[in-house]
Design a protein that fits this description.
alpha+beta; Alpha-Beta Plaits; 2 domains; three-stranded mixed sheet; two-stranded antiparallel ribbon; flat
Length: about 210
Protein backbone atom coordinates (compact mmCIF):
# COMPACT_ATOMS: atom_id res chain seq x y z
CA UNK A 1 0.00 0.00 0.00
CA UNK A 2 1.08 3.57 -0.59
CA UNK A 3 1.60 6.13 2.14
CA UNK A 4 -1.21 8.71 1.85
CA UNK A 5 -0.33 12.35 2.39
CA UNK A 6 -3.59 13.85 1.10
CA UNK A 7 -7.15 12.59 0.49
CA UNK A 8 -7.93 10.95 -2.87
CA UNK A 9 -8.10 13.45 -5.73
CA UNK A 10 -11.62 14.20 -7.00
CA UNK A 11 -10.32 16.12 -10.00
CA UNK A 12 -12.01 19.47 -9.37
CA UNK A 13 -10.80 22.87 -8.23
CA UNK A 14 -13.26 25.03 -6.31
CA UNK A 15 -14.10 28.71 -6.42
CA UNK A 16 -14.42 28.91 -2.62
CA UNK A 17 -10.82 28.02 -1.83
CA UNK A 18 -11.06 24.23 -1.89
CA UNK A 19 -8.23 22.37 -3.57
CA UNK A 20 -8.47 19.22 -5.71
CA UNK A 21 -8.77 16.19 -3.47
CA UNK A 22 -10.54 18.03 -0.65
CA UNK A 23 -13.41 15.52 -0.72
CA UNK A 24 -16.05 18.21 -1.24
CA UNK A 25 -19.24 16.97 -2.91
CA UNK A 26 -19.35 18.90 -6.20
CA UNK A 27 -21.98 19.54 -8.83
CA UNK A 28 -21.45 19.17 -12.58
CA UNK A 29 -20.40 22.82 -12.80
CA UNK A 30 -17.63 22.26 -10.24
CA UNK A 31 -19.25 24.21 -7.41
CA UNK A 32 -19.58 22.77 -3.92
CA UNK A 33 -23.07 21.49 -3.08
CA UNK A 34 -22.60 22.73 0.49
CA UNK A 35 -21.83 26.27 -0.71
CA UNK A 36 -24.76 26.36 -3.15
CA UNK A 37 -27.20 25.29 -0.43
CA UNK A 38 -25.67 27.71 2.07
CA UNK A 39 -26.01 30.68 -0.31
CA UNK A 40 -29.63 29.76 -1.04
CA UNK A 41 -30.55 29.30 2.62
CA UNK A 42 -29.04 32.70 3.47
CA UNK A 43 -30.85 34.25 0.49
CA UNK A 44 -27.49 35.58 -0.65
CA UNK A 45 -26.97 37.07 -4.10
CA UNK A 46 -25.94 34.22 -6.41
CA UNK A 47 -26.17 35.14 -10.13
CA UNK A 48 -24.41 31.92 -11.17
CA UNK A 49 -27.26 29.77 -9.85
CA UNK A 50 -29.83 31.50 -12.04
CA UNK A 51 -28.12 30.39 -15.23
CA UNK A 52 -26.71 27.04 -14.06
CA UNK A 53 -28.78 23.88 -14.50
CA UNK A 54 -26.68 22.04 -11.92
CA UNK A 55 -27.05 24.63 -9.16
CA UNK A 56 -30.71 25.17 -10.01
CA UNK A 57 -31.39 21.45 -9.75
CA UNK A 58 -29.60 21.19 -6.41
CA UNK A 59 -31.68 24.02 -4.96
CA UNK A 60 -34.88 22.55 -6.40
CA UNK A 61 -34.11 19.23 -4.70
CA UNK A 62 -33.61 20.97 -1.36
CA UNK A 63 -36.85 22.94 -1.78
CA UNK A 64 -38.82 19.76 -2.49
CA UNK A 65 -37.29 18.08 0.55
CA UNK A 66 -38.14 20.98 2.84
CA UNK A 67 -41.68 21.12 1.44
CA UNK A 68 -42.14 17.43 2.21
CA UNK A 69 -40.93 17.85 5.79
CA UNK A 70 -43.12 20.93 6.31
CA UNK A 71 -46.07 19.01 4.88
CA UNK A 72 -45.60 16.25 7.43
CA UNK A 73 -45.36 18.84 10.17
CA UNK A 74 -48.55 20.63 9.07
CA UNK A 75 -50.48 17.38 8.92
CA UNK A 76 -49.61 16.62 12.54
CA UNK A 77 -52.36 17.57 15.00
CA UNK A 78 -51.49 20.12 17.64
CA UNK A 79 -48.43 21.48 15.90
CA UNK A 80 -46.28 23.26 18.47
CA UNK A 81 -42.71 24.24 19.14
CA UNK A 82 -41.73 20.62 19.83
CA UNK A 83 -42.99 19.52 16.40
CA UNK A 84 -41.31 22.46 14.66
CA UNK A 85 -38.08 21.59 16.46
CA UNK A 86 -38.39 17.99 15.27
CA UNK A 87 -38.81 19.18 11.67
CA UNK A 88 -35.68 21.30 11.99
CA UNK A 89 -33.73 18.36 13.40
CA UNK A 90 -34.91 16.15 10.53
CA UNK A 91 -33.71 18.70 7.98
CA UNK A 92 -30.36 19.11 9.74
CA UNK A 93 -29.72 15.36 9.74
CA UNK A 94 -30.87 15.00 6.11
CA UNK A 95 -28.51 17.76 5.04
CA UNK A 96 -25.66 16.01 6.82
CA UNK A 97 -26.47 12.67 5.23
CA UNK A 98 -26.60 14.21 1.72
CA UNK A 99 -23.22 15.87 2.16
CA UNK A 100 -20.55 13.15 2.21
CA UNK A 101 -17.88 15.65 3.21
CA UNK A 102 -14.17 14.90 3.23
CA UNK A 103 -12.50 11.50 3.04
CA UNK A 104 -10.88 10.93 6.43
CA UNK A 105 -7.81 8.71 6.96
CA UNK A 106 -8.07 5.52 8.99
CA UNK A 107 -5.50 3.21 10.53
CA UNK A 108 -1.76 3.73 10.54
CA UNK A 109 0.04 6.28 8.34
CA UNK A 110 1.29 3.52 6.03
CA UNK A 111 -2.25 2.28 5.33
CA UNK A 112 -4.24 3.72 2.44
CA UNK A 113 -7.62 3.55 4.18
CA UNK A 114 -10.30 6.25 4.08
CA UNK A 115 -13.87 6.81 5.28
CA UNK A 116 -16.22 9.58 4.17
CA UNK A 117 -16.95 12.23 6.78
CA UNK A 118 -20.71 11.59 6.72
CA UNK A 119 -20.19 7.89 7.42
CA UNK A 120 -17.96 8.60 10.43
CA UNK A 121 -20.40 11.22 11.71
CA UNK A 122 -23.26 8.73 11.44
CA UNK A 123 -21.28 6.19 13.47
CA UNK A 124 -20.56 8.77 16.18
CA UNK A 125 -24.19 9.90 16.38
CA UNK A 126 -25.29 6.29 16.75
CA UNK A 127 -22.69 5.78 19.48
CA UNK A 128 -23.90 8.85 21.38
CA UNK A 129 -27.46 7.53 21.31
CA UNK A 130 -26.40 4.37 23.14
CA UNK A 131 -26.33 6.61 26.23
CA UNK A 132 -29.86 6.38 27.70
CA UNK A 133 -32.03 9.39 26.94
CA UNK A 134 -29.58 11.02 24.51
CA UNK A 135 -30.59 12.08 21.00
CA UNK A 136 -27.74 13.09 18.72
CA UNK A 137 -27.79 15.98 16.29
CA UNK A 138 -25.07 17.62 14.23
CA UNK A 139 -21.64 15.98 14.20
CA UNK A 140 -18.70 17.89 12.72
CA UNK A 141 -14.98 17.29 12.31
CA UNK A 142 -13.00 20.41 13.18
CA UNK A 143 -9.93 21.48 11.26
CA UNK A 144 -7.67 19.15 9.34
CA UNK A 145 -8.07 15.45 10.09
CA UNK A 146 -4.95 13.30 9.76
CA UNK A 147 -3.49 10.15 11.28
CA UNK A 148 -2.44 12.08 14.38
CA UNK A 149 -6.08 12.43 15.35
CA UNK A 150 -9.43 14.09 14.83
CA UNK A 151 -11.32 16.71 16.81
CA UNK A 152 -15.09 16.21 16.86
CA UNK A 153 -17.98 18.54 17.77
CA UNK A 154 -21.20 16.67 18.59
CA UNK A 155 -24.57 18.26 19.48
CA UNK A 156 -26.96 16.28 21.65
CA UNK A 157 -30.42 16.58 23.18
CA UNK A 158 -30.08 15.48 26.79
CA UNK A 159 -32.56 14.21 29.40
CA UNK A 160 -33.25 16.76 32.12
CA UNK A 161 -33.00 14.21 34.94
CA UNK A 162 -29.30 13.47 34.39
CA UNK A 163 -26.25 15.53 35.44
CA UNK A 164 -24.92 17.04 32.23
CA UNK A 165 -21.26 16.59 33.13
CA UNK A 166 -21.77 12.86 33.70
CA UNK A 167 -23.82 12.53 30.53
CA UNK A 168 -21.20 14.37 28.45
CA UNK A 169 -18.48 12.08 29.80
CA UNK A 170 -20.49 9.00 28.80
CA UNK A 171 -21.12 10.41 25.32
CA UNK A 172 -17.39 11.11 24.86
CA UNK A 173 -16.55 7.58 25.98
CA UNK A 174 -19.08 6.11 23.52
CA UNK A 175 -17.62 8.16 20.66
CA UNK A 176 -14.04 7.21 21.53
CA UNK A 177 -15.00 3.53 21.57
CA UNK A 178 -16.83 3.75 18.25
CA UNK A 179 -13.86 5.53 16.67
CA UNK A 180 -11.43 2.90 17.90
CA UNK A 181 -13.45 -0.31 17.50
CA UNK A 182 -15.71 0.42 14.53
CA UNK A 183 -13.62 2.76 12.40
CA UNK A 184 -10.01 2.48 13.49
CA UNK A 185 -9.82 6.27 13.73
CA UNK A 186 -7.91 8.16 16.41
CA UNK A 187 -10.10 10.84 18.00
CA UNK A 188 -8.19 13.16 20.30
CA UNK A 189 -11.01 15.43 21.49
CA UNK A 190 -14.82 15.34 21.53
CA UNK A 191 -16.70 18.57 22.19
CA UNK A 192 -20.18 17.68 23.49
CA UNK A 193 -22.64 20.54 22.98
CA UNK A 194 -26.00 20.21 24.75
CA UNK A 195 -28.40 21.82 22.27
CA UNK A 196 -31.56 21.06 24.25
CA UNK A 197 -32.69 19.51 27.52
CA UNK A 198 -35.77 17.27 27.34
CA UNK A 199 -37.99 16.43 30.30
CA UNK A 200 -40.07 13.23 30.54
CA UNK A 201 -43.23 15.32 30.11
CA UNK A 202 -41.86 16.79 26.86
CA UNK A 203 -41.30 13.28 25.48
CA UNK A 204 -44.84 12.19 26.43
CA UNK A 205 -46.34 15.30 24.80
CA UNK A 206 -44.26 14.71 21.67
CA UNK A 207 -45.55 11.12 21.36
CA UNK A 208 -49.14 12.28 21.91
CA UNK A 209 -49.06 14.92 19.18
Amino acid sequence: MTTPTDPPDDGHAGEYGEEPGDGVDRLGCGRSLVDVWDLWERRAHDPHRRSCVHCGGAVADLERLESAVCGLRDETEGVGEETASLARRIMNVVRLELRPGRPLPLGAPDEDLWVMEAVAARAFRAAAETVPGVRAGSCRFLGRVDHVGAEVRLEVHAPADRPLTDLAARVRHAVYEAADRELGMRVTLVHVVVADVVTPSDEKEGRAR
